Amino acid sequence: MGLTGLHGIDQIMSGSKQRLCSLVDLPEGTSRGISVDTDCGHEDQLLVHKHSCVRAYRNSCPHTGAPLDWVPDQFLNLAGDLIQCATHDALFRIEDGICIAGPCAGKVLSPLSVEVSDEQIFLLLD
Ligand code: FES
User: Fold this and answer.
1) What is the torsional sign of CA 25, 115, 72, 38?
2) Given ligand 1 and candidates 58, 75, 87, which is best to mutate, with the most ligand atoms within 8 Å of its CB?
3) From CA 67, how far away is CA 18, in angstroms rounded?
4) Are strands 17-22 and 120-124 parallel, antiparallel or unpaired?
5) Band of the pLDDT at 1, cuts 50, 70, 90?
């Protein structure tokens, strides 16, 4: 099952965290887009699983606010080591979301806190 568009279907609120998906749905070296229902409405996010660590950011480029993916669930460059914006090819480090090349160099993707527990990925809520 793809992750994009899961809002209202596979997200389970549990206290101060929200289940996003199973870890098996985000294999090592891959990225996924996910839509999350929040108190403020619908929000598009991206998940990246790299070096046994899951990172999450809002799916919004700091250059123009455009979505980052070129095709659904494709957020990484061809080498798979950087997040790449589809619109003007800005490149962001996976580990901290800092743009290292492109029109928004030095700017940062908006990070989200996630936790992996019992093979499930959770968004930690404020
Ligand atoms: S919109 Fe992302 S680099 Fe311009």
Assistant:
1) positive
2) 87
3) 22
4) antiparallel
5) very low
